[in-house]
Amino acid sequence: MAKTHHLPEHGPTAENGKEILLSLKNVDITFGKGENAVRAVKNASFDIYKGETFSLVGESGSGKTTIGRAVIRVNPCAAGEILYKGVKISGKIPNSLDREVIRNIQMVFQDPAASLNERATVDYIISEGLYNFHLFENEADRVKKVENMINEVGLLPEHLTRYPHEFSGGQRQRIGLARAMVMEPELVVADEPISALDVSIRAQVLNLLKKFQKEKNLTYLFIAHDLSIVRFISDRIGVIYKGDIVEVADAEELFDFPLHPYTRSLISAIPIPDPMLEKNKVLFTYDPSVHDYSEDKPELVCIGHDHYVFGNKKEIDEYKRIREDNVPLKSVTILGVNANKEDLEEQKPVPVDEKSEFLERPLHDTGNLLLGILSFLLPILGIPAALLFKNFHYYRNYKICKKGAIGGLICLGVIIVIFILLLIIVQL
Q: How many Å apart are CA 428 and CA 195, to the nearest integer?
């Protein structure tokens, strides 16, 4: 089969009539060799349609960034393939195709400080891609493109002569965004671009991303760990757990029917703005041991409604039954509002022993050293004082009095034993 040296104008068309821009097929990504090999991503498969925002969500270490870096050809695939517009871009490819991939796929990194060259001016950072691909007619054209882009991300032309350390985190992320957008890419891999920013700045960066998408018909692979954010900016969401893609669906479909228990646990962890409701919320904890994959191996299967779930045959049949009932699932349970007996039974109580701190401590529970000294000198009074503190949840005071009283009793016992021995010696 002859190698493709250039990207086609359009990608293949899916069954739903949408153009497939990026496709992962049974991708494995492994780090290390032999016995030390770690399989970071296992058999990952999903499509991203042109013009949409596809979010990849999971906890830290689940493999989200690993997939994003594989898309921009930084992490090699141990198995499977990554297709861009139907052309394989993973593995060894011709230099001409590699340059087109770099030009068409850009990345916005998570850490706005570490991803910028501290020794380069903002002007050079944004212009570097233009220089490498010669995407300007003359110097005046380059300056115009850079100034237009710096204005579009909300900074000023006079910022171009400064260095990254002179900017705040939000401003640095805007510079990183400008560096990616000046290349006029088709696909942008946004690797948690707002997680290192203040809450007020996050909304501004998200609005910028949506603005660019609307104006330039961009496609996003948005990597995040917070479902509350991706719900409102995503067209489709993929959930990843320890390297496995466990669920893929449209954003509202996923929130209405979170079929995989890990997806349900992520949704239940979303904070509720009302503090009283948040206090009474029942967290759903995902337990991987509920799955029995010893004989019937799991796979990612479409259960209808363009909804894919990871499971074995028995689980998939159950997921299909639940989905066909077409009754939205209760993903958030709040005591006194929508909790029932089954929800309370699912909630596993956290054991509290004597060594763990009480959940609620009084303001003056400081564990003052003076209390320990007094308990040491007067252990007979220290013991009831410790019990009294414990009864009223003064945990630190209880602990210091207990230690002091025990130390005082031991010391008193030693003194009494020595005194008795001295009396015996004198009598002899």
A: 80
